[in-house]
Amino acid sequence: MHIDTVRNPERLVPPRITPMRLEAFEQLPKHARRCVFWEVDPSTLQGSQAGGNQLWDPEFEKEAWLSMVMLEWGACGQIAVQCPDSMGDDAVPTGDEACLGYAFYAPPRAVPRARYFPSGPVSADAVLLTTLGVEPGDGADALPRTLIAAVVGDLVRRGVRALEAFGHTADASDLTDPQAVSPVLRPIIEVLGDCSVDQCVLDVDVLQDAGFVVVSPHPYFPRLRLELEQGLGWKADVEAALERLLESAQLQQPVGAGAGPC
């Protein structure tokens, strides 16, 4: 019982969120490594499926895309890992930590599928948020907002004015058969492997909860926008909440639980 009590504060320690590095690629969950919904043109998928073959190597394609965007534009992802309570703020994660969540973003010109969305194009002054993934567990509900805060912080430092995203509505869940939908929507529905619109296009409700507003309505795939000037204050609110969470964890720690010999 005493051991469980000592461990509880560690569960409350906020995840460490850092810019995605190629060295951390293997740390990502399997779907995140293999999903190329945004990174590969749908016509490539159609050609692969017509030939009876799966995409040659989706993990290679995903890693190559990350490498290209990082080289040409800079950081394009944030990764959240669970670090031990004993790890200092300045310590660098080793790569062995469990991945709790991740976010990918890029200039729209680097995202082939973005041009097929009927609510596009993405605004010229905006970066596109494509992916937001969170693993099940304690704190999972709050992590999407915290990951977006990390994206906002990175883009504000780089002088970007806005973050946009395509969202899917509840009605989009019914669009499962590419042959049964409008030709305009078909390139969005074409997927590979375990990808799906529900899994690979961000939920409108999640985006709106994070402060995004619809700027181009659509019954299935609206485009939303977050002004990063507003995001600065939003990010400060998130950081304040995390500080309160950490303080709460420290207060709950039993007297002497973390103390060592002087």
3D architecture notes:
By secondary structure, the chain is of the alpha+beta class. The chain has a single domain (2-252), classed as Aminopeptidase, CATH 3.40.630. 36% of the residues lie in helices and 17% in strands. The chain contains 9 helices and 8 strands. The chain has helices spanning 2-12, 30-34, 42-50, 58-72, 143-157, 186-189, 197-200, 204-209, 228-252, and strands at 16-19, 77-81, 99-106, 126-134, 162-168, 202-203, 213-216, 223-227. Strand 7 and strand 8 (223-227) form a beta hairpin. The longest helix has 25 residues, at 228-252. The two termini are 26 Å apart. Mean pLDDT is 82; it is low at 1-12 and 252-262. This is Acetyltransferase.
Structural class: alpha+beta
Order of helices and strands: HEHHHEEEHEHHEHEEH
Mean pLDDT: 82
Low-confidence stretches: 1-12, 252-262
How many DSSP-defined strands?
8
| Text of the CATH class | Alpha Beta
DSSP helix fraction: 25-40%
Distance linking N and C termini: 26 Å
Shape: globular
Radius of gyration: 20 Å
Beta-strand portion reads 15-25%
Q: In CATH, what is the homologous superfamily?
A: Gcn5-related N-acetyltransferase (GNAT)
Query: What does the main sheet amount to?
Result: 8 strands, mixed
Number of helices: 9
Total of domains? 1
The second-level CATH architecture is 3-Layer(aba) Sandwich
Protein name: Acetyltransferase
